[in-house]
Amino acid sequence: MLRTLMLLLMVASGLALGLQIVMNTRVRTALESPAMGAAVSLTVSVVTVALLIGFGLLGGTGNAPAGFRSVPPWAWFGGVCGAFYLVAFVIAMPRIGVASTICATVLGQQLISLCFDTFGWLGATKVPLTPSRLIGAGLLFAGVVLLQRR
User: Fold this and answer.
1) Cβ neighbour number for residue 63 with a 10 Å cutoff
2) Long-range contacts made by residues 73-78, C-beta under 8 angstroms, separation at least 24?
3) CB 22 within 8 A of CB 93
């Protein structure tokens, strides 16, 4: 049951991502700047998370000082990845469309995820690479190719 709820949560997050792409691209177009479009989106994200924390909706222990000291240096670059992701979206979407943008992004996520699972990079739990997992990634690649046909 919990697994099903988590899968549904992630489907909903994918729906939100599709909405975000179109909304952020509209901001980018109005501001005539991919960087400013991304900055606006990230600022709204920070304010939203701060409000959720302020209202106690995200839980956690609130042990930030000790937690900050225990974060490995490489982990701080997650924000850089997020900024790259957002800027890439607002540049690519008007040129290749929402479906191709999302599908290519999911393919990239799947490829790096398979590497994390297979090799246990950065402390990820190892999950064996099986033929069915490779076929799944191959189908995602096929989806990217097929979405380019017009």
Assistant:
1) 9
2) 74/122
3) yes
Alpha helix (H) residue ranges in 32-63: 34-54
The whole-angstrom separation of Cα 62 and Cα 25 is 35
CA-based Rg of the chain, rounded to a whole angstrom? 18
What CA–CA distance (Å, rounded) separates 30 from 28?
Answer: 6
Residues with Cβ < 8 Å from 124, sequence gap 6 or more?
Answer: 116, 117
pLDDT per residue rounded down to tens, the chain (150 residues): 888 898 888 888 888 888 888 898 899 999 999 889 889 999 999 999 889 888 888 877 666 777 888 888 898 898 899 889 888 988 998 899 888 998 999 999 999 999 999 999 998 999 999 999 999 999 999 998 998 877
Q: Which residues contact 126 (CB under 8 A, 6 or more apart)?
A: 117, 118, 119, 120
The Cα–Cα gap between 109 and 106 comes to 5
pTM score over 0.85: no
Q: Is 4 left (phi over 0), alpha (psi -120 to 50) or beta?
A: alpha
Report the length, in residues, of the chain: 150
